[in-house]
From TrEMBL:
Domain of life: Bacteria
Cellular compartments per GO CC: plasma membrane
Bilayer topology annotation: Multi-pass membrane protein
Localization in the cell: Cell membrane
Designated name of the protein: ABC transmembrane type-1 domain-containing protein
GO BP annotations listed: transmembrane transport
Transmembrane segments: 7-28, 71-90, 102-122, 128-150
SUPFAM superfamilies: MetI-like
Keywords: Cell membrane, Membrane, Transmembrane, Transmembrane helix, Transport
ABC transmembrane type-1 domain ranges (all copies): 67-151
Taxonomy of the source species: Bacteria, Bacillati, Bacillota, Clostridia, Eubacteriales
Amino acid sequence: MNIMLKIFLYIILISISLICILPFYFMIVCATQSSFNTATLQAIFPGNEFLNNFDRLIHIVPVFSAFKNSIVVTIPATLLSAFFGSLTAYGFAKYKFIGKNYLFSLLFISLIVPQQICFIGFYKVCTFFNITNTLLPLIIPSIANPLFVFL
């Protein structure tokens, strides 16, 4: 390969990587600046307001409660999805039954259907079972995730 072509490719790749890193850099800069500097976009270099901003964040937004809710939802959802997905995959792989190909095709086609289509019906079911203000409606839909069958 020509040396000039290599230099040109490296310049292109370095500039693309800098463009990809730029939002993270500005996130760090904004986290270390005062609200005024962040709102007026006057900050280019990191400032010294990080601890004040973090203290305000902890007192205004329930961050640790959100982390706890995330853990309470993701761990059971992932474990249950992996469990039921592996059971389904084992059934499709080892057993021969009538309609196996039809059900497998239906499972494969269900990957195409967006989950947003089912929101209203699922909300009605959650209202019927009186679980609307709990974390269960976030865990239950992930149990029937067809993607885990193929993993």
